[in-house]
Amino acid sequence: MGKRVVLVEDEPAIRENYTLALSKRGYEVTAFSSVEEAQQGMTDRLPELAILDVALNDEPEGGFKLCQWLRQRSSTMPIMFLTALDSDFDVISGLRLGADDYVTKDISLPHFMARVAALLRRVAALNSATSEEDLLKVEQLTLDLERIKAYWKEQTVDLTLTEFWMIHALAKMPGHVKTRDQLMDTANVVVDDSTITSHVKRIRKKFMQIDADFDRIDTVYGMGYRWKS
């Protein structure tokens, strides 16, 4: 049985097209057209990936509402927005609510499928982690790879799946600059530069909610980012 994917899209033709495309690649797809339908369909069993439109029927931000609802039930399940809305405000709003990726409907099908596979690959990678790799400790940072939990000064940092793997990519090699391409590759995420920047800003904010003096993530202008030891 393929990975279980839920698609929430109110336009019938788009919903059918993406359902067919995902099914052809072996995914088990369940599609919904509204927030209420999706909530009813996912109450008893969450999927392994949720793909959401933002505007759903008469709810212009229905997808954002659904993202919040899902995040309350799982901090690590991958969530992707697939939408016609492409402003920086919409992208940042989606990421702020805990989405792992945000793509627009003009994306090519191969690129879209690569991003779906990347999100699911990170979940699968967790299950193959050996016991020696379960914890990564760098000074006051601890990453629990088995449970996808991050701790700073022994306090939990509430990271999404993408944010967790980005921190892992940086922290496992302190002082080394990761270009955006390397960060995407190491973290198994396929996003554009502006989305990486939004993720990094969000990660910094989450650490600073625990420690106002947090300054471990350096921006190396023109190159990328590094974890400062």
From TrEMBL:
This is Proteobacterial dedicated sortase system response regulator. The keyword Glycoprotein does not apply. It comes from Pleionea litopenaei. Residues 4-120 form the Response regulatory domain. The keyword Transcription applies. It holds the Pfam family Trans_reg_C. One of its GO terms (cellular component) is cytosol. InterPro entries: CheY-like_superfamily, OmpR/PhoB-type_DNA-bd, Response_regulator, Sig_transdc_resp-reg_receiver, WalR-like, WH-like_DNA-bd_sf. Keywords: DNA-binding, Phosphoprotein, Transcription, Transcription regulation, Two-component regulatory system. Residues 133-229 form the OmpR/PhoB-type domain. The modification 4-aspartylphosphate is found at residue 53. SUPFAM superfamilies: CheY-like (SSF52172). GO terms for biological process: regulation of DNA-templated transcription. Residues 133-229 bind DNA. GO terms for molecular function: phosphorelay response regulator activity; transcription cis-regulatory region binding. SMART domains: REC, Trans_reg_C.
